[in-house]
Amino acid sequence: MPSTVLQARNLTKRYGALTAVQGLSLEVYEGEVFGLLGPNGAGKTTSINMLCGLLKPDSGQVRIQNKIVTNGDANVRARVGVCPQEIILWKTLTCLEQMQFIGEMYGIGARSARQRSEKLLTELDLSEKKDEQARTLSGGMQRRLNLAMALVHDPEILVLDEPEAGLDPQSRVLVREYIKSLARNKTIILTTHNMDEADRLADRVAIIDHGLLLTVDTPEALKHTVGEGMCWKLS
Questions:
Q1: Which domain, by its residues, includes 207?
Q2: Which of 22, 113, 121, 135 has the smallest C-beta neighbourhood within 10 Å, fewest atoms?
Q3: Is the residue at 187 inside a domain?
Q4: In the predicted model, what is the mean pLDDT of residues 123-143?
Q5: In this structure, is the dihedral angle defined by the CA atoms of residues 96, 102, 105 and 109, taken in order, positive or negative?
Q6: For strand 187-192 and strand 157-161, is the pairing parallel, antiparallel, or unpaired?
Q7: Positive or negative CA dihedral for 172, 190, 52, 54?
Q8: Predicted pLDDT at 167
Q9: Mind listing the pLDDT tens digit for each residue in 64-92?
Q10: Over 90: is that where the pLDDT of 149 sits?
Q11: What pLDDT shows up at residue 232?
Q12: Are 178 and 124 a contacting pair, CB within 8 Å?
């Protein structure tokens, strides 16, 4: 039986009259890629923000390695890396400067932060851009830089919100293969509204709509249930 890394129980989040997430319960296993699949506005981003301690639920709780997650928990910040859907960069800093700055914010020494940063930039095909300002990069390169920034402190759990959004075909393949390679050593949670992306990347998929968890299963089992070639109406 695989080891449970993250456990959510009855997570609920409301914004006034809108219930963004209602009674979400799930488990994520060590070393797997776990996908949250659903249409835009389904509650995926709200869910992952609660899962990684960025957003306090109105009710319910999250545990990482059986320890309750609280909002702003420093232990969670050290163990989880988050790559948001919206690209967040300091546009006047170079790629390497951004990486080193993030690393030092996580308490990594300057030398180690630089070494880790250069390694990640090389892996994500950005080494030639390391001394260029982030504002000069293409959108796809900026997204890859955001992914590198989420990994600079070497987290156990990586959370990716729509990781392939806005990527050109070449960058999409690079990021997809890189995520697969990371799964050997890390637990990955990603959101998507694209069934093909979930099928290619995820070991298990949770389908969410209108803030409700509909089902959790492997992509293969879900395709078998729905039928090969059927259209997923998720956007």
A1: 4-89+152-226
A2: 135
A3: yes
A4: 93
A5: negative
A6: parallel
A7: positive
A8: 86
A9: 988 888 766 667 778 899 999 899 899 89
A10: yes
A11: 46
A12: yes
Rounded CA separation 71/214 (Å) = 26
176-202 per-position pLDDT tens digit: 999 999 987 899 999 998 888 888 999
Closest CA to 80 of 161, 192, 9: 161
> Does 8 fall in a domain?
yes
Provide the domain count of the chain: 1
Would residue 141 count as lying in a domain? no
| Encoded amino acid at 160, one letter | L
81: CB partners within 8 A, 6+ apart: 150, 151, 152, 153, 155, 157, 158, 159
Q: Which of 35, 43, 40 is nearest to 163 (CA)?
A: 35
SS3 (DSSP) at 172: helix
Q: Which two tokens stand for residue 33?
A: 């890629």
Q: Which range has the worst mean pLDDT, 23-32, 65-74, 223-232?
A: 223-232
Residue 233, pLDDT > 50, answer no
Which candidate, 224, 203, 226, 225, places its Cα nearest to that of 34? 203
Beta strands in 99-196 (DSSP E): 157-161, 187-192
Query: Are the beta carbons of 80 and 64 closer than 8 angstroms?
Result: yes
The structure's pTM equals 0.89
Classify residue 55: in a domain, yes or no.
yes
* CATH code, 175: 3.40.50.300
Q: Record the tokens describing residue 201, joined without a space.
A: 């990347």
Q: Of the candidates 65, 45, 68, 46, which has an alpha carbon nearest to the alpha carbon of residue 57?
A: 46
How far apart (Å, rounded) are the C-alpha atoms in residues 68 and 157?
A: 15
Which stretch of DSSP H or E encloses residue 53?
none
E strands in the chain? 4-15, 18-29, 33-37, 59-64, 67-68, 80-83, 157-161, 187-192, 204-209, 212-217
